[in-house]
Design brief:
alpha+beta, 3-stranded antiparallel β-sheet, two-stranded antiparallel ribbon, 5 helices
């Protein structure tokens, strides 16, 4: 009888240890998969912000320094619908005639099939309402003033609800290599509209 009890206890210990080993392998994989899923959603929103900023700059001459200005602009801004036809007097077929045939609201084009509205553009996904940090400035590049902007989404914002220690480790790893601990679009020190994921 003692042998049977010992065997049952050993079997339970083996099962528990096996489960713990399995979980120790699976947990980092689940964290990585969830992080990649969340990053993709945040990156897509950052790309929309970049498109909005490029339209804002094209029409206003500089980037928006905050979401309030950007959202107010996008709510009323219109872009022309241009019809391009070949110039009938051009025998080389390289010249075109551009004819504006109407206007369409930026809000209707940029946010048509998005899972959020224009007024939710500033909210970081998965963050319980925390906003992206956005700033705009001008920098001197070879005697020329260049308009720049930057949008930040820290890991601690869009990794809410994930394993806290793994998030802390991820942030520490990025800071140890002098990289921004999160997703970053543009720069206030360089003339770039790229993201740190590209």
């Amino acid at each position: 009888m003692k042998n049977v009890i010992i065997q049952v206890v050993l079997f339970i210990v083996i099962v528990v240890l096996g489960y713990m080993i399995y979980e120790s392998i699976q947990e980092p994989l689940r964290f990585k998969k969830e992080l990649e899923r969340r990053e993709l959603v945040v990156v897509n929103k950052l790309k929309d912000i970049r498109n909005a900023q490029l339209i804002y700059k094209k029409m206003k001459g500089s980037y928006a320094g905050n979401f309030d200005s950007l959202e107010k602009f996008l709510a009323v801004a219109e872009i022309p619908l241009v019809k391009m036809i070949p110039d009938p007097n051009d025998t080389t077929f390289t010249k075109t005639i551009n004819d504006t045939i109407g206007y369409i609201k930026v809000e209707d084009t940029l946010f048509k099939n998005k899972p959020y509205t224009l007024y939710e553009l500033s909210i970081i996904p998965f963050s319980d309402g925390q906003e992206f940090e956005m700033a705009a400035d001008t920098i001197d590049r070879g005697g020329v003033l260049v308009h720049v902007f930057q949008v930040l989404a820290p890991y601690e914002a869009f990794c809410k609800g994930m394993d806290k220690q793994r998030v802390i480790n991820l942030i520490a790893k990025m800071e140890d290599t002098d990289r921004y601990p999160g997703l970053k679009l543009g720069s206030l020190t360089e003339a770039s509209t790229n993201g740190n994921w590209e």
